[in-house]
Amino acid sequence: MFLKVCSIAVSKGCVVIDNSSVFRMNKDVPLVVPEVNPEKIRENVGIIANPNCSTIQAVVALKPLDLKYGIKRVVYSTYQAVSGAGRQGVLDLENGLKGEPTKKFPYPIVNNCLPHIDSFLDDGYTKEEYKLINETRKILNKPLLPVTATAVRVPVKNCHSECINVEFERDFDVFDVKQLLQNSPGVLVIDDPSKIIILWLLRLMVLMMFLLVGFVVILALGLVLIFGLFLIILERVLLLMLCKFWSILFLLSVFIIFKKATI
Questions:
Q1: Kindly report the CA angle at 35 between 33 and 41, in degrees rounded to 5?
Q2: Which entry of 14, 53, 116, 159 is annotated as an active-site residue?
């Protein structure tokens, strides 16, 4: 059904942006991360594929490193939140904290880490790990790049994290690597523990600004509503007064005419 709907949309001139894994490794479908390979968008023939969530955050950091130093090998270790398994994954964590059995995961996720995301294949890798491997190769345009991955489900609701070990073809300086990443789109380098509290304060300030803007917008809408009601009431009052004025004027005219008639 999904493929049929996509075919219909493409035949009508639409561009389908697919978030599933159906088209990701199709050689005729570009696999795009805007910060990494936006030029591939122009190569679409009606369908653009969106990578796996863990692949996206990885290649955003890997691309600038590959351009400058040439990536020779990648070793992934991912620590993925239960939200990546959908609503039932989150419920497994919440219910597990209450002592209830799991329904989504094969083992309890509370106070546990499960190196089992998606199903296992014959060679011991999971489908999730192969997504990381194959999608990285395709996005970086390095089909023979040595990549290995271990994907682990961890007992937190949201926020995937990754440890990426990278070997380069050219010499590098750690300071230069940090500077390169700091100046790359979509990457924020946090490497000084003493500054973490400053980062949280900045985030708090941004949140407060959003709340303040929201309050101002609500206040403005309230004032507009009150002013609108005031105008409606004023219109009704003026209309009523005008009606009364014309009524009095009419009665006065009738009285004057009647007075003249009697004289």
A1: 50
A2: 53
This prediction has a pTM of 0.71
Out of 53-62, 73-82, 235-244, which region has the weakest mean confidence (pLDDT)?
Answer: 235-244
Helix axes 53-69, 127-139, angle to 10 degrees: 40
- For residues 3 and 29, what is the distance between their CA atoms, to the nearest angstrom? 14
Residue 163 annotated in active site: no
8 Å CB contact between 61 and 136: no
Contact yes or no for 61/164 (Cβ under 8 A): yes
Give phi and psi for 185, each to the nearest 5: -65, 135
Residue 30's SS3 state is coil
Distance (Å, whole) CA 154 – CA 151: 10
Residues 30/36/41/47 CA torsion (nearest 10 deg):
40
Q: Which tokens go with 243?
A: 């009606």
- For residues 30-40, average pLDDT: 95
- Residue 183 in 3-state DSSP? coil
Annotated catalytic residue within 116, 159, 160, 243: 160
Pairing of strands 16-18, 47-49: parallel
164 touches 62 (CB < 8 A): yes
Report the mean per-residue pLDDT for the chain.
89
pLDDT at 262 over 70: no
* 61 in Cβ contact with 33 (< 8 Å): no
- Residue 160 designated active-site: yes
Radius of gyration of the chain (CA): 32
Q: What is the C-alpha separation between 94 and 109, in angstroms, rounded? A: 10
At residue 219, the pLDDT reads 86
The pLDDT of residue 101 is above 60: yes
Could you tell me the two tokens for 12? 């009508």
